[in-house]
Design brief:
By secondary structure, the protein is an alpha/beta fold. It has three domains: 11-150, Alpha-Beta Complex (tt1808, chain A), CATH 3.90.1570; 157-308, no CATH class; 313-455 and 497-525 and 538-579, 3-Layer(aba) Sandwich (Rossmann fold), CATH 3.40.50. The protein has 22 helices and 13 strands. The protein has helices spanning 11-25, 31-48, 94-104, 136-148, 157-185, 187-203, 210-230, 236-239, 241-253, 260-263, 268-279, 284-302, 304-310, 317-335, 355-363, 369-375, 384-402, 432-443, 472-483, 497-508, 530-539, 560-563; strands at residues 52-59, 68-75, 81-87, 110-115, 118-123, 126-132, 345-348, 377-381, 411-413, 446-451, 513-520, 542-549, 572-579. Strands 9-8-7-10-11-13-12 form a seven-stranded mixed sheet, sandwiched between helices. The protein has a six-stranded mixed sheet with strand order 1-2-3-4-5-6, sandwiched between helices. A hairpin with a 2-residue loop joins strand 4 (110-115) and strand 5. Helix 1 runs antiparallel to helix 2. The protein is globular. The relative contact order is 0.07. Residues 306-312 and 457-467 have low confidence and may be disordered.
C-alpha cells in the first residue's frame, strides 16, 4: 500500500492555508471560490500516486436519467475511482449537507466532505473521521486516510495487473509453442489452422504471416473470458461472426489434450480481478474507458510491436466529444443537416474500441437511432481484440439507448486501406456475413469520415523490422498527389499511415462531406508536407485545425506523459476538413 508523504510543513499545505487567508482578506467565502484551495491540495497529493483529480465527476444513479456530480474524483490510469470529494463553503452546516447528499444517492465508499474549517470522511459506508481543518495535523491526517484507503474490490487489482503484464509475454510464448506442436501432431487442428490462415490472408492482408494468425488465436484465448464476464455476454462467441469462426479453430486446437481452462488457470486471479473491479463501475461509459485501458495494457505486455505498428492508444473522451459535436455543428451550419438526418452515412475507418461510433449514437435523436444503427453507421477494424470490444461497446450502447438488443451490422473486420486496392470485389472477407457488410459499406455514400488513424512513422527503434506495410494503390495515390507537389528532398514522412488516412478519407467522401480526424500534427508546418497542404487547400472549402502541440521529439523539455494528450512522442492535432458541392 502506498503512503501519502505529507506533513504540516510541506509546501502544498502552506499554500492551502495562504489561499484561504487571501480569500478571507477579500471577504470571499462562496464555495466555487474557496474550494479551489483544497482542489490544489488534492491535486498535489494525487500526483504522488500517479492519479488524477477529475473535477465535476458524474455519479450515475439507477432509474435516474440525470447523473449527480461530485466536485472531484481521484482517478487512476484505468479510470478507476479511488475517492470522491464534495466541497462546501464555511456557511454550510456540513453535517446536514452530508445527510442531504447521501439521501440524493451519493456513494459512501470513500468520500470526503470538506468545508474550509472541517472535513467528514466516509469509508465503506461508515463515518471514519471528523477533522478540524484549521489544525494542520488534522488536515494531513484526513488526507492520509482519504488517499491511503483501498476499496475492497481493488485490493487484488493492482497486483493482478502487475502479474499479468509481467507474465503474459511468457504465456504467449507458451501458447505459441503449443500451437506449433499441435500443428505437427493434430491433423484436425492443422487443417483448421491452414483454412483459417488462407481466409485471413484473403480477407485482411495477402502478406499476412502465420505468426500474425497465431497471435490472433492467442489474443482470442487470453481475452474471450473478459468479454463474457465484464460485458455479461455469455453468447459472445456465438453472436459475433468473427469470434464464431475463430472458435472453430480453437475447438480443433483443444480436440486432443489441450484444455484452455487448465492452461489459463494461472491467471484466474487476474480475470476475477477484472470482473470484480469492472462490477464496481456503474456507468457504462466509464466501464468502456476502463476496458480500453486494460486493452492498451494487454498489448503493451503481449505484443509491443503490434502496439507500435498500429498505434494502440485510444482517444481521450473529451477529444471524441469535441470532434463529434464539431461535426454536428458543421453539418447544421454548412449543409442544413445533422447526424440524425436520413441519408447521412457516418464511417469510422479505424474504429479501435468503437468510441467514436458510440459517441455519435449518443448525439443522434432517439427516434432516428434505430434506422441509423441498421443502415447508416459504419466502422472498420483490422485487429481482432479492438474489433471484439468495439462490437460489444456499440451493441451495448444501443441497448442502453433503446432498451433493445440488436446486433450491429455496420462493423467490419477489414483493413480500410486494403479496400482501396484493386481486385477486392471478388474476394470474401472472413465470413459471408462480414463480406456482405464490407460490400454494403463500399456502396454506401459516406458523408462523414471520423476517427483516429494510426500514426507512427518516427518509431523509436528504426531497426526493429517493424515497418508499416505497403499498399500499392494508396501509396501510389499519395505519391501522385502529396509527394509529387512537394519541394522537399526527403519525403519519407509521407509514408506515415495518417497521411494515407487523410488521402483515403478525402477520396471517400466524394463530392461533398466532412473528414474529422485526430492525427500527428506534423503536416501543419513541416516542409515534407508542403504538397499535402497544397492539395488539402485545393480539395476542401473549409479547414479547421486545432493544434494540441506535444511534440516531444522537437522539444525535449516536454514530457509525453504530461504535455501530450495521448502520452506519446509526436505532436497531435484535431482536424476537420469540409467539402461542399457549391
Amino acid at each position: 500500500m502506498q503512503t501519502l508523504r505529507l506533513s504540516p510543513s510541506h509546501k502544498p499545505v502552506g499554500n492551502y492555508y495562504r489561499a484561504l487567508e487571501q480569500f478571507k482578506t477579500l471577504k470571499v467565502s462562496h464555495e466555487t471560490a474557496v474550494r479551489s484551495a483544497f482542489q490544489n491540495l488534492l491535486e498535489a497529493c494525487s500526483r504522488q500516486f500517479s492519479w488524477t483529480l477529475v473535477p465535476e465527476w458524474p455519479i450515475k444513479r439507477e432509474q435516474h436519467r440525470h447523473a449527480l456530480r461530485a466536485d472531484g474524483a481521484v482517478v487512476d490510469q484505468f479510470r478507476l475511482v479511488h475517492g470522491l470529494w464534495e466541497a462546501k463553503d464555511a456557511g454550510d452546516d456540513l453535517r446536514r449537507e452530508v445527510k442531504r447528499k447521501f439521501a440524493a444517492g451519493y456513494p459512501a465508499g470513500n468520500i470526503l466532505f470538506q468545508a474550509p474549517e472541517r472535513a467528514i470522511l466516509y469509508q465503506n459506508n461508515r463515518e471514519v473521521l471528523d477533522a478540524d481543518l484549521t489544525n494542520a495535523d488534522e488536515l494531513v491526517k484526513a488526507l492520509a486516510h482519504f488517499f491511503e484507503y483501498t476499496p475492497p474490490a481493488y485490493e487484488q487489482w493492482t497486483q493482478a495487473v502487475e502479474d499479468f503484464q509481467r507474465e503474459v509475454p511468457e504465456l504467449g510464448r507458451a501458447l505459441t509453442e503449443l500451437i506449433e506442436r499441435e500443428r505437427k501432431s493434430n491433423r484436425r487442428f492443422r487443417e483448421a489452422f491452414t483454412d483459417f490462415y488462407e481466409l485471413c490472408r484473403q480477407s485482411i492482408n495477402p502478406n499476412l504471416s502465420e505468426q500474425a494468425v497465431e497471435e490472433m488465436l492467442i489474443q482470442h484465448l487470453l481475452t474471450e473470458r473478459i468479454f463474457r464476464g465484464v460485458f455479461h455476454n455469455s453468447d459472445f462467441t456465438r453472436r459475433n461472426v468473427i469470434a464464431a469462426e475463430i472458435e472453430k479453430v480453437i475447438d480443433a486446437l483443444t480436440s486432443q489434450a489441450f484444455s484452455r481452462e487448465a492452461f489459463l488457470g494461472r491467471f484466474d486471479h487476474f480475470y476475477r480481478a477484472i470482473e470484480q473491479t469492472a462490477a464496481t463501475i456503474e456507468d457504462f461509459t466509464q466501464k468502456q474507458e476502463f476496458l480500453n485501458t486494460v486493452y492498451e495494457k494487454f498489448f503493451q505486455g503481449f505484443s509491443v510491436k503490434v502496439a507500435d505498428t498500429h498505434g494502440i492508444v485510444y482517444t481521450p473522451q473529451p477529444i471524441v466529444n469535441f470532434m463529434v459535436r464539431s461535426v454536428e455543428d458543421i453539418l447544421q451550419r454548412e449543409f442544413g443537416k445533422s447526424l440524425s438526418s436520413a441519408g447521412v452515412h457516418i464511417l469510422d475507418p479505424f474504429t479501435g474500441t468503437g468510441n467514436f461510433i458510440v459517441r455519435v449514437m449518443q448525439e443522434i435523436k432517439r427516434t432516428a437511432l434505430p434506422a441509423k444503427y441498421r443502415a447508416e453507421l459504419h466502422c472498420n477494424e483490422v485487429m481482432l481484440l479492438p474489433y471484439y470490444i468495439a462490437s460489444m461497446n456499440i451493441e451495448h450502447e444501443f441497448n442502453e439507448l433503446t432498451n433493445t438488443y440488436e446486433a450491429f451490422q455496420g462493423i467490419c473486420l477489414v483493413d480500410t486501406f486494403e479496400l482501396a486496392e484493386g481486385g477486392q470485389t471478388s474476394l470474401s472477407f472472413m465470413t459471408p456475413e462480414n463480406t456482405a457488410r464490407v460490400e454494403r459499406q463500399k456502396r454506401a455514400p459516406i458523408t462523414v469520415v471520423i476517427g483516429n488513424p494510426p500514426y507512427n512513422v518516427g518509431q523509436l527503434n528504426e531497426n526493429d523490422n517493424n515497418k508499416n506495410r505497403k499498399y500499392k494503390v494508396m501509396d501510389g495515390h499519395v505519391a501522385q498527389t502529396y509527394a509529387r507537389d512537394s519541394k522537399a528532398t526527403n519525403k519519407n514522412s509521407l509514408s506515415d499511415p495518417y497521411v494515407k488516412a487523410i488521402r483515403w478519407a478525402s477520396d471517400r467522401i466524394g463530392g461533398e462531406g466532412i473528414v474529422a480526424l485526430v492525427t500527428n500534427n506534423s503536416f501543419i508546418d513541416n516542409l515534407a508536407f508542403d504538397g499535402m497542404r497544397k492539395h488539402l487547400e485545393r480539395d476542401f472549402d473549409a479547414i479547421y485545425v486545432l493544434d494540441l502541440g506535444g511534440n516531444v521529439r522537437k522539444n525535449p523539455k516536454l514530457s509525453g506523459t504530461t504535455h501530450n494528450v495521448f502520452g506519446i512522442q509526436v505532436g497531435v492535432s484535431v482536424n476537420v476538413f469540409v467539402r461542399k458541392r457549391k
